[in-house]
Each structure stands twice: as structure tokens, then as C-alpha cells.
Specification:
Blueprint (H helix, E strand, L loop, with lengths): L3 H7 L22 H6 L6 E5 L3 E5 L3 E2 L20 E4 L7 E18 L8 E8 L2 H4 L17 E6 L4 E16 L5 E13 L7 E4 L2 H17 L16 H14 L5 H11 L11 H18 L2 H6 L1 H12 L24 H25 L3 H14 L10 H10 L4 H9 L12 H10 L3 H17 L55 H9 L2 E5 L4 E4 L8 E8 L2 E9 L5 E6 L5 E3 L1
Parallel strand pairs: 12-16
Antiparallel strand pairs: 1-9, 2-5, 3-4, 4-9, 5-8, 5-9, 6-7, 6-8, 10-13, 11-12, 13-14, 14-15
Length: 587
Amino acid sequence: MKPLFYLAVFQLACLGSLAQTPSSPSLPPVFSSEQVRKSQSDPTVRRYLSPVKILWQTKAITNSERLLKPGNGQADLSGKDLCSLKSTGSMKPGILLDFGKELHGGLQLVTGQWKVSKPITVRIRFGESASEAMADIEPKQNATNDHAIRDLTIQVPWLGKLELGNTGFRFVRIDLVDPDTELLLKEARAIFTYRDIPYLGSFRCNDELLNKIWETGAYTVHLNMQDYLWDGIKRDRLVWVGDMHPEVSTINAVFGYNEVVPKSLDLARDITPLPGWMNGISTYSMWWILIQRDWYQHHGNLDYLKHQKTYLVSLLNLLTQKIDAQNSETLDGTRFLDWPSSENKPGIHAGLQAMMVLSLQAGTDLCRILGDPATATQCEAAVARLKKNVPAPNDSKQGAALLALSGLVPAQQANQDVLAVNGAGNFSTFYGYYMLQAKAKAGDYKGALANIREFWGGMLKLGATTFWEDFNLDWTTNAARIDELVPAGKKDIHGEYGAYCYVGFRHSLAHGWASGPTPWLTEHVLGISVVEPGCRTIRVQPHLEDLTFAEGTFPTPFGLVNVKHTKLANGTVQSDITGPKEVRIIR
């Protein structure tokens, strides 16, 4: 099952196909068997999408509506119904196209025949917002070509086709560079590159905003499931292990097993010899342990877990050495939770202390499964020591969330003192997931739902179709939507805000670490949690709060668990639950 909005926006019936790219490469017989053996198959497919709207155009452009019509990717000799862009010595025409939704891929241009059979030079700018597609590469608003080329000048052929680009975008601006020239365009279609996989998990309730937030989180992660699991499709097209944790939680809730997860976990392991930290960040190595625990819990693949044993045990041994005589963590490397908390040193220390407890507890469980009681006992002893030292979070919602989840601080206390203060103020896109999880542990489901509506709903109100690398509710005052050219007197929320590594247009607007509400809604509103590895046992305990009903599906290795919860007139909840016979369901 795929979200209805996903199908409607792109109008691609072909997306309903469950066909998968063959796992083994296949090349024509003219290639040697050695070339075939060493070749790599592509896990993604490509679909071609026409723009849905023209947001802006200059003079000297005629028949631009032609570009909104479906195309076939083929140049022809008819010369009919083409879009014309005419330049003079002093005027260069340009047009801004809106494809309706953030996507990953590039652009296909199909041209007509102009008077002289020679290439014409055009400038192409991709943008995650309309204003980014209109921006120049300059320091003021930090439009860049980092990680992916999104601003380039290139020649298009006479009576032919050109495909270019490999980035994340929704908007494309096309400018004619050559003077005294006429460019004839038959088509300008987005090349949508993605894994053609079914949305097995689902969520629906009587609040359409929550439905859209669930779907948007799922789609954001789907876009980042490329060759590896990235955290951003425009910038940071890298395997950042900490960022992967909310993404993997979303994958478990929506897609079930996908090879991109172990492939990315293994890459991080193989390029990080100990005692180095993954991505240079101690917490990211700890997130690797937590992902391994969660992945095994959902999929029960003991063979895969056994392949991690040597590295896992050595990493756990390294962590147990990072505790001083006062039972305080002494982690080196980059001391980092997330960017918004990066200047709160006491808050970071509190979070690191909690992360040590969480990862060593997970390591204890994994070592017992792997038949290594000695390392399990060593981890337990380290946890006991760490629990004797409980740092204050210093008003850091990130630190407070981790303290609550680790059990170092009672969840109700962390929620009352820090997490619930000022609503979704000081939430963050990455650690917002753990703030929500801590609030659920405190029993504050009502507050968590309000935070989701305010914070993630705030991005949707500004035109987001994917969730962003960072977001601050303070930015929203007098801000324009990202799907419009910024009106006079309004703030450009993409170009004028951001900090640290994401100033201005460098800010990623499709970041998988921001998808936390998707698995949270599945786990706490639908109430589905995994009790026994491999989903052998599932617990269903819904929390509807102000909702009148919630229903959905959850993928297991044996098939889908289906739930529907209805609030009755007397306030009780009636639940209808079905699942595969191999899965024991408890309430």
C-alpha cells in the first residue's frame, strides 16, 4: 500500500508495481563474465514527471504551457506545439518550473529544431524551494554546489535530448544563456529516481494533519533510500550513522526489511577501524549499536548479527573504558548530540552519559543473544557505575529526553521540568523523535501529539512536502512559503535562516532524520511495539487521546499486522486486530 497523496501528486500508476530490480547483475553477452561479475546493479528505478505549474517566467517566452503536458521523451520533426525562449543581446529569458513535490533525480530536456543545427547554452538551477532555484551561488545566502551540482551551465543539442542532474529538488529554473538565439523546448521533465518498494506500513486517523505528517515522514526517508541510506538528497548524501536511527525506525514501521539498512551499517563499520568513532562522533558509534539491536528485534536475522560480533564486542570494550573514577563518561572525538544543542556543553554531557547507558544496555542484550556472557556482564557493570552519576540537562530538551529514556531520570520529572516547557519550542528535527519518545514514556501522549501538530505541522504549513534538516518555530513569523516567490515584506525561510552547517540555501529540506513522528505514531497511537525478536510477539496498546479512531498496518517478516481502534461513546477503545499466525499478539 502506498500513501494516496504520493500517487496523486505524481500521477504514476506505475509506482504501484512491486517489481524489484534483480539482485544479480545482467549484461549483454558481449561483455566478459569477469565484467559481469564485477558489475553493480542499480537498486533504483527512474520515472519521468512533467511539471505541474509555471511559477515565474520572463518576457520573450511563448507557449510555455506546453511544458506542463505529458511527454514521451522523444524529439520529432513535426515542429509543432513547442515552447520558445528568445534572447536578444541584452535580454536572456528564464522560466521557473514547479514539479509539485520534492523528489530525487535530475532533468530531461527534449528539444526542437532551430534555424542553425548547433547546440545552445542554457543555465539550469535546481531548488528545494522556489527561492533557492532563483538564487546565485554566492556567500550571502549560501547557495552551493556541495555534495550535488544544483547550478550548472550546459549545452543542449539541436533536435535531441539531454539528461542532467543528480540532486534533491522540487523546482527548476531554465535560463537561455546564448544571445540572439531561439531555444525550442518540447519537454522539460523531472527524472525521478527512487527505490520502487511498497509502503507496507500505514497510518490513518480522523486528523488529516497527523495523516499527512505520517506520510511525509515516510516519503522523506523513502527518498533517502538510494545506493545507501543518506540523510539528505541534496546535501549530506552520506551515511551518517546517528541520523540513520530515526530513519531505520521509519523503515521498520513503513517498509519492513530493506537491504539498504545492513548495507549502510556495514559500510560505516568497515570504514571505521577502532578505536575511531563512526563519522568521528562517539554518539554515532553508539547509535550503530542501538540500530543493530532494533534491527535484530524487528527482523530476527541472527546470521547477520553474528557477522557484527567481532566489531560489536570491541566497540563495547572501548566504551566501558570511557568512564572515570567519578563514574562520569569521558568520551573523546566530537562530543555531539545534534546541532541545536551543540553549544550547551552541560546538556551534551548529560546526553552522552545517557547514551552510554542506552548503548551498553543494548550491548548487554546483544551479547547474551550472541553467547558472550563475559562482555554482557562487563557492560552491566559499566551501566551500574554510570547510574551513580546523573548530570543535570541544563534545560536541554535533547539531554533531558536521553536521561528519561535511559532511566537516569524519571520520565515524568524530565517531561515536567524540561520537555513540556514552552510546547514545541526548542524542539529539533533529529532529537524531536527522542523528545516524543520520552514524553510517551512519561505518559504525556496528549502533549506529544500537540508537539507533532505544532512542530512538524509547522513545516507543512510553509509548503513542505518533505521534512527539513532543521526547523525553529521562531522562524515562522512573517515567513513566506517555500513554494512561492517571496513577496515583498516577507521573510525567506530557506535563504535567511539556518546555522552551523546549514546556513541559508545550504539547508537541506529533505532530511531523513526528521521523520520521527512516523514511527512514533505507529508505535504509540496505533500502539504497536515488538516484544520478541523477529516480530514473533507484538504488543498492541493504543493511545488515541483526542482522536476518535486510528487504523493502520505494520510489516513483520511473516506479513502484515492490521489494527483498527475506535473510541466508543463511553470513552473506551474498541480494537480489531489481525495478523499472521506466526505472530503472537498481546494487549
